[in-house]
Write a structure and sequence with these properties.
By secondary structure, the chain is of the alpha+beta class. The protein contains 18 helices and 28 strands. The longest helix has 19 residues. The chain is globular. The relative contact order is 0.11.
């Protein structure tokens, strides 16, 4: 490879302090800064039931997370965290700085997960996206970028054992036009998490007895080159920030990790695309109420625009007043620079910022609408029947609400459960254990979390494939409860659960086993998501009805994934009867979840309703806002949401802060109710 180094200079951005709000409006609409709801609402973010941190946060459920975290299992609390970083604009001005900033962003994103061995837990993957040989100097730029990343990672002691490259990011058109992608590296970090329950959220805690601190990781002057601010004004700029002192960066990282381990950090968010002002706004967006009062006096420098919009790597942390002296002493002892920048203002919905004589106030809800607008415009391309507009109108009007039974303690002991009973259990010939069977078809993907929920509730659980029923190896004669789990049986090629239903209807032994099971009076059944579709397709819930129910495509005509509210009405069902009156958070993930219920509502034993009638609170347009129905005798239940993915607080995307020490959520009660009912029949 031969190339020449070509120095390219880009004009720095010019600005006026009098146009701050105009600048902010422009920055918040950039795709790199703006809300990504259009992207996150169409992918399953709860599958496996091990997802402890996904994109969306807060009572309004907006995509604000810095990192993703997955638990290793259902019983322990260890996990794996991952985060991304990239800096394409900065890379245009300086390939070296672009590489360093990509690594820095990935690490300031993953820092919010308590890593088992701090920075030593981390490994990186570098994905090089470059237009090699497209013009003179690009190959030399790539070399400089790779060397800079290597040098920085060596300096901070983090390895890069893997990666990939796409080095032909150039498009040539027949008319001679050529489009060149800006060379950049996308850095993915990953590491072991010591406790998935301690991952810090970016959502501000609305408590006036707390304060916010800014910690700069860069040890560099604030610079606007390569920033979203410059891009929003049509510039790139050559004055690009970087990390000046790698060891200081490590010290800052380790300090934040230690404060998380000590439980001092209530909330925290990285500073990257959009700068400090975007970080502060994003910390408030997912709350229905409250704002911030900020003073930038303690941040070095006299340029307010740079203080607000520079993208020097750093973080903002929220600390309770009870720990403020400990935090200040700890940071000082470890030679970490910090600035106290403000406090929450629970009674005002504004971001108030001052720096010397300069003052400004921004309406948070107005800024959030600006930030959300880009997502709405993109969502119009994928959501049908006007649902993109509905989502944009309603997302902020539908906060998650929680209402639990007064006697719910959140402990396993309340239900007499022992998650470790397998260690000491011995066969008991005098007491028959209730048996549950997970019934799976090709493409089922929700069986493991369901099996654990049943086991935790006291069932003995067995795995049954459709081939077991078809061949007669399994007859279900010894089974007390069957569960049809979620997933994409037969890839949904015939429609959701159509092929699965056919496997029962057109295989005599499977149909006989099912018919005999439902003819018994000592059995229960549960269908979740794809399993719900199956039960409705087989007409197992209301065979007495003249007009059959159906599950149809969501009104939006796309897959919907969200964490939302269910209201449990007064109902006659084995599993949900005791939860009547509760309002609970739960996951949905489906493309065909709209209940078509041709009979009057009082003809159905409705066991769960979406808490809000309008989309997206009702994600599919179901009749009567129904999320689940049950047979008239209360034994056979079908619902689209995934209660098995919400039995632990860490599985839920939002859970009451005052109950964060709960071992389990109220959803476990449904499974315990099922076990107790079966025991009464044995």
């Amino acid at each position: 490879m031969k190339d020449e180094t070509v120095e390219r200079k880009y004009e720095n951005v010019s600005y006026s302090i009098n146009k701050v709000e105009e600048y902010l409006q422009r920055v918040l609409q950039l795709e790199a800064v703006a809300c990504k709801d259009w992207l996150t609402n169409k992918v399953d973010r709860s599958v496996t039931g091990k997802v402890a941190r996904q994109q969306c946060q807060g009572e309004i459920q907006l995509p604000l997370s810095d990192c993703g975290v997955v638990a290793l299992d259902y019983r322990g609390h260890k996990g794996i965290a991952t985060a991304l970083g990239h800096a394409p604009q900065a890379g245009l001005a300086s390939p070296e700085a672009g590489s360093v900033l990509s690594v820095a962003e990935s690490l300031t994103n993953i820092v919010w997960a308590p890593l088992a061995d701090g920075m030593d837990s981390l490994s990186l993957s570098a994905n090089w996206m470059w237009p090699c040989r497209s013009q003179k100097g690009e190959d030399a730029r790539l070399y400089s970028a790779v060397k800079a990343l290597s040098d920085f990672c060596c300096a901070i002691g983090v390895n890069v054992p893997t990666g990939k490259d796409s080095l032909s990011l150039t498009q040539q058109y027949p008319n001679g036009d050529k489009i060149i992608s800006p060379g950049t590296v996308i850095v993915t970090s990953g590491g072991e998490v010591s406790d998935v329950r301690q991952v810090v959220s970016p959502v501000l805690v609305n408590d006036k007895n707390t304060r916010l601190y800014h910690i700069d990781f860069s040890f560099d002057e604030q610079r606007l080159g390569g920033s979203a601010f410059a891009q929003s004004l049509g510039k790139i700029g050559s004055d690009v920030p970087t990390v000046k002192e790698p060891q200081y960066f490590c010290d800052c990282f380790d300090a934040v990790q230690e404060m998380i381990r000590r439980g001092w950090i209530l909330a925290g968010h990285d500073i990257s695309a959009g700068g400090l002002i975007t970080t502060l706004l994003e910390m408030t967006f997912a709350n229905a109420e409250g704002g911030l009062h900020i003073n930038l006096h303690d941040i070095k420098g006299d340029d307010v625009i740079k203080k607000l919009f520079a993208e020097n790597p750093g973080v903002v942390i929220q600390v309770a007043d009870e720990h403020k002296e400990e935090v200040k002493e700890f940071l000082t002892e470890n030679c970490i620079g910090f600035a106290r920048i403000g406090t929450p203002s629970p009674d005002k919905r504004t971001l108030s910022i001052a720096d010397g004589d300069w003052k400004a106030e921004f309406d948070i809800d107005t800024m959030r609408e600006t930030w959300y607008k880009t997502s709405y415009l993109l969502d119009r391309k994928q959501s049908m029947n006007g649902m993109a507009k509905k989502r944009a109108q309603n997302y902020k009007k539908q906060p998650i609400e929680m209402k639990f039974n007064a006697d719910f303690t959140g402990t396993l002991q309340q239900y007499g459960l022992d998650a470790d009973r397998w260690k000491t259990s011995t066969p008991n010939t005098h007491h028959q254990t209730p048996k549950a069977a997970i019934i799976r078809e090709k493409g089922t993907n929700g069986e493991r979390e369901m099996a654990y929920a049943l086991y935790l509730a006291g069932f003995e659980v067995k795995d049954v494939m459709m081939t077991d029923l078809i061949t007669g190896r399994e007859t279900l004669e010894e089974v007390n409860m069957i569960v049809f789990c979620g997933g994409f049986s037969n890839s949904d090629v015939l429609g959701s659960a159509k092929g699965w239903a056919g496997a029962f209807l057109y295989n005599p032994k499977a149909k006989q086993a099912l018919d005999r099971f439902y003819a018994r009076e000592d059995t229960l059944s549960l269908g979740i998501c794809n399993g719900c579709q199956l039960m409705v397709e087989l007409n197992l819930i209301n065979p007495e009805h003249k007009h059959r129910a159906h599950l149809c495509h969501n009104t939006s005509k796309k897959f919907e994934s969200s964490f939302l509210n269910l209201t449990i009405p007064q109902n006659n069902s084995v599993m949900f009867g005791s939860l009547s009156g509760n309002k609970l958070g739960i996951w949905v993930a489906h493309g065909e979840g709209r209940f078509y219920l041709p009979e009057a509502e009082d003809k159905y034993n409705v066991i769960a309703k979406y808490n809000y009638a309008e989309y997206p609170g009702n994600p599919n347009g179901s009749d009567y806002n129904v999320a689940g129905i049950c047979s008239a005798d209360g034994r056979h239940l079908a619902m689209m949401p995934h209660l098995e993915r919400a039995i632990f607080p860490w599985q839920q995307a939002y859970y009451p802060r005052e109950r964060r020490q709960d071992e389990v959520t109220p959803w476990i009660e449904a499974f315990v109710n099922a076990r107790k009912w079966v025991e009464s029949k044995l």
